[in-house]
Each structure stands twice: as structure tokens, then as C-alpha cells.
């Protein structure tokens, strides 16, 4: 500050001193004139600097001003201040740009609305989820674009705590959850989240609970019915009681099987990895063929074909339960006199495969993609009457998935079906020695 003042003062004093030196008396006419001229020149210089300064201030992007003395100090200080401000502004602009870019690419739809609910800005997900286009729709009323009475009521209500669930106007299969968030200057942000997957899982959960309850209700009703009848008898009749025991046992077994299957599925889902071991697939196929004979009790012709001695890397118990289901299905859904072929070998696609081919009733093509859904049966009555829970192929799918294998179903109604479990090469230990191409079922 001191520096700022002493230089002009020094200049005026210096001028007075020079006038005095020249003319001996500063108060005399010529001395005074020289002093005034000096001051006038100094004033002109300062005014020029001031004009340049004012021009520069109106456009500081021009090259900085040069100046000395008071102006030099002032300009240096001002320029430093401006540069600092510019740096801060650039940083704020860069941060803002980064935020905008991040919001633009958010997976949730974001639409900024003004106080009249006109669209001010929208991101890429909003284009996709709400079918909006920035070129066409910015400045338009959101209500005109998303014509829906529930949406209109919700938007006009301005209640920021209410979440609106709506089908996407762009594609009705997409389910959206919309929320409003207040912003400064009376603007608001409309957030649209894709909840299709959550809605699907929720619907599955509801169906699952309804199915389990339905499956349990029938056997429980039968058992409770008998128990109530016995309770109402004045004298318990042991003969009657004995007569109904087999049916009660059958229904209890049904409940037990259902619970076992459900627990099995829950375990498969909760444990992501299999406990791997080397599985002797040939022995497994032989064992399953034997069980098929037992189940069939001579009603079917059962053939076992072992094409190679390859073994598997996997969980023997899980693989057994999955493949046993394919075998038991073949026996249950093939009428008496039918033929069942159990085969361990390489498929026409070159994959090591366990397959069960039957000459049974077959399955219409429309049912095939749904067979592995829990409780899905082609013929409800038929499956129940043969003791099926409808969970078998769901378990098969999970077990095979855990072994990176896939289930292939080929079926012709009236002719029969082939269910194949196809294993990836990483899970197969190739045969060590050649094996006979065909072996009788034992
Ligand atoms: N080999 C087959 N031939 C004809 N239909 C079949 C065959 N295998 C399965 N299905 C059909 O697929 C449905 C689902 O089979 P899944 O094994 O999942 O259940 P389930 O056999 O009814 O009962 P569970 O296996 O739980 O005892 C069956 O109800 C049946 O309609
Ligand atoms: Mg089954």
C-alpha cells in the first residue's frame, strides 16, 4: 500500500525540486509553469493508462497490459486475481461437464423439468426407457409426451415421496419405477428406473409361494380328512383305519418328496460351486438302467448303450439325482410296451452326452421351453397321479448349469422324446481304453 502511494508523491516532489533547481523559486511564474506542465504530462500519462486499463477490463482475454509504477503494481495484482478466478471457473466448468457426462450415461432415465413440467434436459437412458428424443422433445410438456392418466395425476400432484410404477411408453414389457426429486429454481428431476427384472423375480416369487401352497394343500386335505373322520367315529374301527393307511402314507410321501425337492433346489441355488470328484459315468448309467427296470416292472423294453468309457468331473450325487429324473420321466411318461434307450456317448454335435430316449407320448413344441420351470407340467393330472412334484426338470437344469452342461430336449408328439445332458469338454475325462459299443441292461 505504502509502495502504491510513495511513487506518485516522489514524482510530484521530484518535479517541484527540478523546477526549483531551474528557476530558483517554485512560486515564481516560470517555475510554477514548469511544475504545472510536468503535472499535466503526468496526468495525461495516467489518463492514457486508465483508458487502456478500462479497455482491457472490458475484454480481459486480450494480452495483459504492461505498466510501471502504480499501474504496474495494480495491473499485476489484478491480473493475478483474474487468473485465479479464471482457473477456479475452468475447474467448476470441467467438474460440471464431468457430472453432466456421468448423468448422461446413468443406467436410470433422468429428465429435468421446469416449473411448468416442460422438459429441460434428458439423458440417454431416458431416451431409451421413455421413448424421448432430445432434438424433438426438449421444451415440450412432459404430460403431452407420456400420455397416461396415472402419470399425469402423479406429476401434477408434486408429491416427492410417491413412487409411480408404470409400463414404459417405449416398450410395454419394460416396467419402470418413477420418482420426482426437487431441484433449485422450481425445477425437478424425474428419475425412471428399469425394474423389469425385479418385477419378474417378484412375480416368480408370488407364483412359487402360490404353487407350493397349492401342491401341499391336496395331500394335507386328504390326511386331515381321514383323521377327522376317525375322530368323529364313536368307536375307532381298526379295520377301516388300516384300509386307509396306504392312501395316507402315499399322501405323506408326496409331502415329503415335495419338501425334499424344494430343499434340494434351495441348496443348489445357495451353493454356487459343486464339490467336484471323478464320476464313473458308465457305472452311473448302468445303475440308472437297473433302476429303470425296477420302476418299469417289465412294462417297457429298456436298453443301455455305452459308447465310450469317458468319465466326468462333477458331483456324483447331484448328477445321479438329475439323470435319475430323466430316466424316471421316461418310464412314467411312456405307455406300457414302449422302448427306452439310455445312452452314454458322443452326440452328433460332438459333445459327451447322457441321453434318455423314449417312445412315449412326446411333448408339443410350445411346452418345451417351459419344462424346466418349477411346477410346470404338460399334463397336470397325469403328473400328479404318477406322484410327480413338477420340480424334477428344474433340479436337472440347476445341476447341469452347475456343471456348465446343458439340457437338450427333442420331442415329437405321439412318437417320443429324447432328453440329453450335454457336458463341456472341460468336464470330461476321455476314455482310456476302448469299450464295447453295446451292453445289456443289468
Ligand atoms: N419323457 C417325457 N415324456 C413326456 N413328457 C415328459 C417327459 N419328461 C417330462 N415330461 C413332462 O414334463 C413335465 C415336467 O417334468 P418334471 O420332471 O419336471 O416333473 P414331474 O415328472 O411331473 O415331477 P417330478 O419329476 O418332480 O417327480 C412333466 O410333468 C411331463 O408333463
Ligand atoms: Mg420328473
DSSP strand (E) fraction?
15-25%
Named CATH architecture of the largest domain: 2-Layer Sandwich
The profile of the biggest β sheet is:
5 strands, antiparallel
The CATH C-level name of the largest domain is: Alpha Beta
According to CATH, what is the topology of the largest domain? Heat Shock Protein 90
- Work out the count of structural domains: 4
Count of helical stretches? 13
How would the global form be characterised? Answer: elongated
* Bound ligands, named by name, code or SMILES: adenosine-5'-triphosphate, magnesium ion
Radius of gyration, taken over Cα atoms and rounded to an integer in Å: 44 Å
Low-pLDDT residue intervals, each spanning 5 or more residues: 438-442
The CATH homologous superfamily of the largest domain is named Histidine kinase-like ATPase, C-terminal domain
Give the neighbour order of strands across the main sheet: 2-1-5-4-3
Task: Tell me, rounded to a whole number, the average pLDDT.
Answer: 87
C-alpha end-to-end distance: 110 Å
Order of helices and strands: HHHEEHHHHEEEHHEHEEHEEHHEEE
Specify the oligomeric state: single chain
Number of strands: 13
Q: In terms of structural class, how would the helical and strand content be classed? A: alpha+beta
Helix content: 40-55%
Amino acid at each position: 500500500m505504502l509502495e502504491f502511494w510513495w511513487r506518485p508523491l516522489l514524482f510530484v516532489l521530484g518535479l517541484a525540486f527540478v523546477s526549483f533547481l531551474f528557476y530558483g523559486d517554485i512560486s515564481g511564474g516560470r517555475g510554477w509553469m514548469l511544475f504545472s506542465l510536468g503535472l499535466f504530462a503526468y496526468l495525461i500519462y495516467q489518463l492514457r493508462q486508465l483508458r487502456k486499463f478500462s479497455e482491457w477490463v472490458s475484454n480481459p482475454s486480450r494480452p495483459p497490459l504492461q505498466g510501471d509504477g502504480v499501474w504496474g503494481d495494480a495491473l499485476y495484482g489484478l491480473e493475478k486475481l483474474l487468473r485465479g478466478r479464471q482457473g477456479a471457473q475452468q475447474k467448476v466448468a470441467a467438474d460440471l461437464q464431468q457430472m453432466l457426462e456421468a448423468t448422461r450415461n446413468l443406467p436410470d432415465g433422468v429428465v429435468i423439468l421446469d416449473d411448468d413440467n416442460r422438459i429441460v434436459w434428458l439423458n440417454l437412458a431416458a431416451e431409451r426407457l421413455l421413448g424421448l428424443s432430445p432434438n424433438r422433445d426438449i421444451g415440450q410438456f412432459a404430460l403431452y409426451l407420456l400420455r397416461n392418466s396415472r402419470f399425469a395425476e402423479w406429476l401434477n400432484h408434486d408429491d416427492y415421496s410417491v413412487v409411480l410404477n408404470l409400463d414404459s411408453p417405449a416398450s410395454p414389457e419394460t416396467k419402470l419405477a418413477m420418482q420426482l426429486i426437487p431441484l433449485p429454481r422450481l425445477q425437478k428431476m424425474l428419475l425412471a428406473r428399469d425394474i423389469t427384472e425385479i418385477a419378474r423375480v417378484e412375480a416368480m416369487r408370488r407364483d412359487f409361494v402360490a404353487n407350493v401352497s397349492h401342491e401341499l394343500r391336496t395331500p394335507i386335505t386328504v390326511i386331515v380328512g381321514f383323521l377327522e373322520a376317525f375322530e368323529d367315529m364313536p368307536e375307532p374301527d381298526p379295520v377301516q383305519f388300516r384300509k386307509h393307511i396306504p392312501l395316507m402314507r402315499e399322501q405323506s410321501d408326496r409331502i415329503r418328496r415335495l419338501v425334499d425337492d424344494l430343499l434340494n433346489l434351495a441348496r443348489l441355488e445357495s451353493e454356487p460351486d459343486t464339490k467336484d470328484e471323478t464320476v464313473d459315468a458308465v457305472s452311473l448309467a448302468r445303475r440308472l438302467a437297473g433302476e429303470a427296470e425296477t420302476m418299469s416292472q417289465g412294462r417297457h423294453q429298456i436298453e443301455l448303450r455305452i459308447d465310450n468309457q469317458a468319465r466326468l468331473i462333477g458331483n456324483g450325487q447331484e448328477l445321479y439325482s438329475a439323470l435319475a429324473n430323466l430316466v424316471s420321466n421316461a418310464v412314467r411318461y411312456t405307455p406300457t410296451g414302449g422302448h427306452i434307450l439310455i445312452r452314454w456317448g458322443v452326440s452328433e454335435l460332438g459333445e459327451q452326452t447322457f441321453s434318455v430316449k423314449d417312445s412315449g407320448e412326446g411333448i408339443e413344441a410350445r411346452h418345451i421351453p417351459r419344462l424346466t420351470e418349477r411346477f410346470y407340467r404338460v399334463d397336470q393330472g397325469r403328473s400328479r397321479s404318477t406322484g410327480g412334484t413338477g420340480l424334477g426338470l428344474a433340479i436337472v437344469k440347476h445341476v447341469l448349469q452347475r456343471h456348465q452342461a446343458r439340457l437338450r430336449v427333442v420331442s415329437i408328439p405321439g412318437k417320443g422324446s429324447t432328453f440329453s445332458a450335454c457336458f463341456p469338454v472341460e468336464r470330461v475325462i476321455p476314455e482310456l481304453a476302448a469299450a464295447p459299443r453295446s451292453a445289456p441292461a443289468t
